[in-house]
Amino acid sequence: MARTMAPLAHGREGSVCEPVATPRGLTALRALIEAAPSRSEIKALAAGRAALDVRDPRSIERAFGDLSPTIAVNTAAYTAVDKAETDQDAAFSLNRDGARAFAAAAARRNIPVIHLSTHYVFDGTKPAPYVESDAPRPATVFGRSKLEGEHAVRDANPQHVIIRTGWVFGPTGQNFATKILGAADGGAPLRVVSDQHGNPTYAPHLAAAILDVARMISAGDLRGSGWGTYHASGTGVTSWHGLAGEMFECAAKRGRRGVLLEPIASADYPTQAPRPKNSELDCAKFERTFGLRLPAWQQGVADCVARLTTG
Ligand SMILES: NC(=O)c1ccc[n+]([C@@H]2O[C@H](COP(=O)([O-])OP(=O)(O)OC[C@H]3O[C@@H](n4cnc5c(N)ncnc54)[C@H](OP(=O)(O)O)[C@@H]3O)[C@@H](O)[C@H]2O)c1
């Protein structure tokens, strides 16, 4: 049985948890832990930040020692894209140095690492979906810190699967779905950017794919050439405005009051860190290698809204 370990910031601290009932927070990892119990071949072990702080090598060593994973998944990151512009040291300490330390600890035990990265390693100016062989050119501190994290993981652990994804949303944590459906409660019209495009990725769909990759690694299906960098995001493309529209349509079908959405340009919503115009990832390599394609983003929206509007 694969023992998949991931640092979980909001999990029960210092314990082996399966499944982990996280009280709040976290998009990608909570989904991962929720999905794991349905896979009998995978036992997911989550370490809370207090038990596994990726900036503290001793805590990493302790957690690896306590949990004895056979595969390690790193979902911990500094994800405040705007704040990173003025908080460079913190972004690099987590996204580069923490990523290296975590991957190196796995390597010392001859354990593969699955590491999450982002479309922010690209500047978003390409007029077509990004493929893995495109030269990264981050336009933000956050993107640079994640790119250097990728380099660090590759250097630290030859057995790595780096998964770049984007526009992750889900029913828990601070993300576009929870924020925008919450914002609509005020009833005022919402202005949403319509000139940035990407592939919305439903966290539980991403989690299921990560667990499938972990299962293949553990079954020995991933030969030497399978280690590397992949793009994996939801199937289909839209804008933030399109994503919001789909969310409110689903919510309206479930009896929620309608909301007026006003499309605006990025220039009308200035942010400290520039947002990529194009965040679209070509996921063909992931599908070729693992036989996995994430479901259409609209399926994720339907499930997410159902979960957020139940009860
Ligand atoms: N969300 C997206 O749209 C998106 C897109 C592309 C890629 N990704 C990647 O997916 C991964 C997970 O992102 P997410 O959306 O799930 O982000 P998230 O909700 O912000 O989760 C990141 C987690 O890392 C934890 N963390 C912070 N410092 C830590 C430390 N020193 N040691 C251990 N854990 C620590 C945070 O805990 P606290 O909450 O306690 O600070 C937080 O729970 C990241 O690598 C991110 O770059 C996300």
Task: Briefly say what this structure is.
The protein is of the alpha/beta class. The protein is built from 9 helices and 12 strands.
Q: How would you describe what is shown here?
A:
The chain is an alpha/beta fold. The protein has one domain (2-309): 3-Layer(aba) Sandwich (Rossmann fold), CATH 3.40.50.720. Helix content is 37%, strand content 15%. The protein contains 9 helices and 12 strands. It has helices spanning 28-35, 57-67, 88-108, 141-156, 176-183, 203-218, 240-253, 284-290, 297-309, and strands at 2-7, 42-47, 71-74, 113-118, 160-165, 168-169, 190-193, 197-198, 201-202, 228-231, 238-239, 261-264. The strands form 4 sheets. It has a 6-stranded parallel beta sheet with strand order 2-1-3-4-5-10, sandwiched between helices. A two-stranded parallel sheet has the order 6-9. A two-stranded parallel ribbon has the order 7-12. Helix 3 links the parallel strand 3 (71-74) and strand 4. The longest helix is centred in the first third of the chain and has 21 residues, at 88-108. The radius of gyration is 19 Å and the shape is globular. The protein starts with a strand and ends with a helix. 51% of the residues are buried. Residues 8-26 have low confidence and may be disordered. It binds NADP nicotinamide-adenine-dinucleotide phosphate.
Q: Ligands in the structure?
A: NADP nicotinamide-adenine-dinucleotide phosphate
Topology as H/E string? EHEHEHEHEEHEEEHEEHEHH
The name CATH uses for the topology is Rossmann fold
CATH architecture assignment: 3-Layer(aba) Sandwich
- Would you count the extended β strands for me? 12
